[in-house]
User: Fold this.
Amino acid sequence: MTNEGIRRLSEFRSVLEGFAASHAARNAAASPETLTRMRLSLKRLVKAVRARDYVAFTRADLDLHQMIVGLANIPTLEAAWRVVWDGLLPLHKQGFDDYFPDSGTIAEEHDYLVETIAFGDPAAAEDAARTHIEAVWLRIAEQSRSNSDAESSPLKRASVHIAFRLHCPLTLTHVAKKIAFTSPGNLSRLFRRHHGISFQGYLQKLRMEKAADLLRSTRLPVARIAKRVGYNDASRFSQHFRRLFKAAPIAYRVAGQP
Assistant:
């Protein structure tokens, strides 16, 4: 399958799973037994990731996503989703082996997805599902794109990577060397030239904008939103948020600012 075919199929999976997760969150309170089974599958998935056991991971991953689609309780959705899942299956092991050197990321993304569904927040669950699938495509594109491709310029590669990894620790040195394939000094100059701010300033701005979107569209606790955008310290997150939006996160949410 060509990269374009993979991209389109991944986009379709993103739409289907986002839709499924949203409806699963609506039905979660009425199906505690399904949530229990999802959490058991999540535990098996985490164990398989830690052991780098692809076979066990595949079973747990399929079980978990299939339960989410089933919990949505939408006629014919599961049949359509399974066709797309099977279409992307040849890339599944490749992604497991090559595109996630930080294996903990896989477990964290699935844990967050289950958490948002259990919380009963449709918007948060949809965002979690779609971000997860889109990040998979991003990793594939990063690995397969030619360095001579105009789309793979250092700034472009860095910016796209950052957009899908806001919840992860990100440093200029790592992004420059491993993602943008340039020196930290050059990448820093590119950010200042094209965005007028430093790499760190750009990263912080994107994190705050994502947080603002989650505050407006979801009911997730502020501490959970802070963690989702890369802050383990909620008070530090609030400080940075207030600096940009001139309001504390709770006040921003209550006011419903555009």
In short: The chain has two domains: 3-144, 149-258. Residues 146-151 have pLDDT under 50 and may be disordered. The two ends are 42 Å apart (CA to CA). Residues 149-258 form a domain with the Arc Repressor Mutant, subunit A fold (CATH 1.10.10.60).
